[in-house]
Amino acid sequence: MLSTTPRTRLTRSKERGRTSREDLYAVLDAGLVCHLGVVVDGAPRVIPTGYGRIGDTLYLHGSTGSLSLRGPGEVCVTVTHVDGVVLARSVFHHSMNYRSAMVYGRPRLVRDEEERLAGLRAITEQLAPGQWDATRPPTRKELAATAVVAISLDEASVKVRQGPPSDDPEDYATPVWAGVLPLRLSWGAPETDPAMTSEVEVPAHVSSRPDPGR
């Protein structure tokens, strides 16, 4: 179960909240990009970036010179999936069907080399499953230029909206189309790098990757 804190307690649309840790994992594991919210030099900053999960720890990476990863303060990480646009009979009740997760925490700079490699592998596999073992591993120079941070999933919340619009009772007789326009993502055909110097077939983990979805 997710532990409720003052920051994760839902104040609006409480019925959309999910308290299962499995729901949190499902939202995070289905994503490609998270948004990292930090305060740098007294001003808020939100950075879209890749991530990976191992158990109850979220891993992010970036340049060792990144101010966003070097700050000692609290951060907020969000992941959102839009599953459809909800079209209601009134403008007020238009909405989206979505799955979202919000994580609060204080990033921990990962210094242990074994954990750093595990974190980088998790980030790579989140973006492209099977790619870590198919490509050259990072060099010592590349690792020295890369910062990896870990964020605990102890403080997190999940919200999900599904289903048709919720109009006011007096609007249901209005002759306006209402419903859901689903949104689904799919992969296109792989495009080979024109700089390839030899004939190499597209690997199965790339060509046969399932479309993103639930």
Order of helices and strands: EHEEEEHEEEHHEEEH
Strand fraction equals 25-35%
Largest sheet: 7 strands, antiparallel
Number of helices: 5
Shape field:
globular
Radius of gyration: 21 Å
> How many individual β-strands?
11
Whole-Å distance between the termini? Answer: 21 Å
Structural class: alpha+beta
What fraction, in percent, of the residue positions are helical? 10-25%
Low-confidence stretches: none
Mean pLDDT, to the nearest integer, reads: 94
Can you tell me about this structure?
The chain has 214 residues and is α+β, with helices and mostly antiparallel strands. The protein has 5 helices and 11 strands, in the order βαββββαβββααβββα. It has helices spanning 21-29, 67-70, 113-127, 140-144, 204-207; strands at 17-18, 34-40, 43-49, 52-54, 57-63, 75-87, 95-105, 108-109, 146-152, 155-161, 179-182. The model has no long low-confidence stretch (mean pLDDT 94).
Task: State the gist of this model.
With 214 residues, this protein is α+β, with helices and mostly antiparallel strands. Helices cover 17% and strands 33% of the residues.
Itemize the secondary structure elements and their pairings.
Blueprint: E1 17-18, H1 21-29, E2 34-40, E3 43-49, E4 52-54, E5 57-63, H2 67-70, E6 75-87, E7 95-105, E8 108-109, H3 113-127, H4 140-144, E9 146-152, E10 155-161, E11 179-182, H5 204-207
Antiparallel strand pairs: 1-10, 2-3, 2-6, 4-5, 5-9, 6-7, 6-11, 7-10, 8-9
